[in-house]
From TrEMBL:
Originating organism: Dimargaris verticillata
UniProt keyword annotation of Repeat present: yes
Residue segments, region Disordered: 266-295
SMART domains, A to Z: LRR_RI
Sequence ranges of Polar residues compositional bias: 283-295
UniProt keyword list: Repeat
Name of the featured protein: RNI-like protein
InterPro entries, per database record: Leu-rich_rpt (IPR001611), LRR-containing_regulator (IPR052201), LRR_dom_sf (IPR032675)
Length: 539
């Protein structure tokens, strides 16, 4: 891989690249030129001309570089002629938005190209002025494995302009090669479509769903398998509309990313939903570390009975009245829509203001989602009540026909309010492979009564308890329990951000002792609890 730093007197370096491209050097398969490495327009023309006739380069990255008119000409010619390049990242942050004519030519060439599988146009100020060009990317007969349009300026009006101009007319494609169209699949593949961090709201989602659901006249539905809409102002209405997409037989979605979508048009979080508990809910977490308060137990029984009833009725009845009417009803509808999916394996609802009051409705979907494997609910204000309900769902008796088993095996509840009581319940889930409880309230200080009979997490191989204010004594107890056979399948234990600077020696001693008894368990713990916490990873 050549990252490129030509600098002064760069001719010889570019000469080397061109020479290797022209002789089809089999070892020269990836070229990424970082944005702060500057090439002249003449250098780019030479590179693109060489790539046009090359058959070995698979990845080209020159994002962040302004392309002069003559460079755009060379790029278009390259895209029309080269059909072996697979990955392309191009464009300066402001160029395509300010030069729609140039982008239109590039989009037509991309439509005609028969080799590219991944296109990255993140943060290129694409918006309304580019709508006519963007339809070429969405209508490309060969589709895409990855199409990244995140961090742009796409809004509802832009999507409307795109979809009202589909399908493409013969005149639209008259300047493009028909090679790509001749072998077009019945359903154009669009593996990963990333529209995150734009300005799409409920109206835009409705248009998007018409396209994905095959409801646009004369337009084949794209086989989108991964849809990323995080950081868009979808709000509750948009999420509900999107989940109804599973009503359509054409939907083959396997992953749905919706983090940070319950926001207003202005990007300000909406007021938190009414978190009034379900009748019988008691949200006081002052019980001992591993025992459910009677009021919580009664509430959970009520909720799970509602779920069982819905499973028996095929989700035709309504138990919405068992939940706070406004917020939980939304998640009930979303859960019902999820029930219809036979393909969805990953659902990300990070920072969507779910709350305990919405978990009951969502669980009605989970109870029937036999394909769902990964669920992420970071920073949703969830307490032990939600943990207890999830545990009930994931530990259901397989002989109980009222409550279908959920196949969930990866659960992320980071940045919520789970305590040792909820943690103990989650360790009774036999099919969980990964459990992430980063930055919760699992303040282990000693034995948990909820684990008096051990655990049932026979397949749990990764556990993250980072940043939970675990004390040295609590860590000692937990490692002793692991050494005695608790979580016998565990391979990775993440507990960074718990040990303060003056506790390092004590923690190190405990880790070494655990390693002696369980050498197959890898412990990651050395990030200082006094250090600044990392920025949560965005998806």
């Amino acid at each position: 891989m050549a990252w490129g730093n030509p600098g002064p007197g760069s001719g010889s370096v570019v000469d080397t690249w061109v020479e290797r491209l022209e002789r089809n050097d089999a070892t020269f398969c990836s070229l990424h030129i970082l944005s702060f490495r500057r090439l002249s327009a003449a250098d780019f023309v030479r590179l693109f001309t060489a790539i046009a006739n090359n058959a070995t380069l698979k990845e080209l990255g020159c994002s962040g570089h302004t392309l002069e008119p003559e460079v755009v000409d060379a790029l278009v010619a390259m895209l029309v002629q080269n059909h072996t390049l697979r990955v392309l990242k191009i464009g300066h942050a402001e160029q395509f938005g300010q030069a729609p004519e140039a982008f239109h030519r590039v989009a037509q060439a991309l439509y005609a190209n028969a080799g590219l599988r991944e296109l990255d146009l993140e943060f290129k100020t694409l918006g309304m002025s580019n709508a006519s060009a963007l339809r070429y990317l969405l209508a490309r007969p060969l589709g895409w494995d990855v199409l990244n349009l995140s961090r742009n300026q796409l809004n509802d009006a832009c999507l409307d302009a795109i979809f009202t101009q589909l399908p493409l007319t013969p005149n639209d494609i008259s300047t493009a090669s028909t090679n790509a169209a001749s072998d077009a699949p019945t359903l154009p593949g669009l593996g990963i479509l990333d529209l995150g961090d734009n300005a799409i709201s409920a109206q835009g989602v409705s248009l998007l769903c018409r396209w994905l659901g095959g409801q646009l006249p004369g337009v084949l539905p794209p086989a989108v398998r991964v849809l990323k809409l995080s950081y868009n102002p979808l709000r509750a209405e948009g999420i509900d509309t999107l989940c109804r997409l599973f009503d359509h037989a054409h939907t083959v979605l396997e992953e749905l990313w919706l983090s940070d979508t319950i926001i207003t048009q202005e990007g300000v979080p909406v007021p938190e939903p009414d978190d009034s508990p379900t009748p019988g809910f008691h949200t006081d977490n002052s019980t001992d570390s591993g025992r459910t308060a009677p009021s919580q137990e009664q509430a959970i029984q009520t909720i799970m009975q509602n779920i069982s009833t819905q499973a028996q009725q095929g989700s035709t009845g309504s138990s919405v009245s068992a939940f706070p009417p406004s917020h939980a009803a939304l998640w009930y509808d979303i859960g019902r829509s999820l029930n219809k999916s036979r393909t969805l394996t990953l659902l990300n609802l990070d920072r969507c203001l779910l709350k305990d009051s919405g978990m009951g409705g969502l669980l009605q979907g989970l109870a029937g989602s036999l394909q769902l494997k990964t669920l992420s609910l970071r920073d949703n204000g969830l307490s032990d009540i939600s943990a207890h309900m999830l545990s009930r769902l994931l530990t259901a008796d397989p002989t109980d026909a009222r409550l279908p088993l959920c196949q969930l095996d990866r659960l992320d509840l980071s940045e919520n309010h789970i305590t040792p009581a909820g943690f103990a319940d989650l360790l009774q889930c036999p099919q969980l492979h990964e459990l992430v409880l980063y930055a919760n309230r699992v303040h282990l200080g000693g034995p948990m009564s909820g684990l008096g009979n051990g655990d049932s997490a026979d397949h749990l191989h990764r556990l993250d308890l980072s940043c939970n204010d675990i004390t040295p004594a609590g860590f000692q107890w937990f490692c002793d329990a692991l050494g005695a056979g608790l979580l016998h399948a565990l391979k990775t234990l993440e507990v960074a951000g718990n040990a303060s600077h003056d506790e390092m020696d004590a923690w190190d001693t405990v880790v070494q002792a655990l390693h002696t008894k369980r050498p197959d368990v890898h412990v990651f713990w050395k990030r200082d609890a006094n250090a600044i916490p990392p920025t949560p990873q965005q998806s």
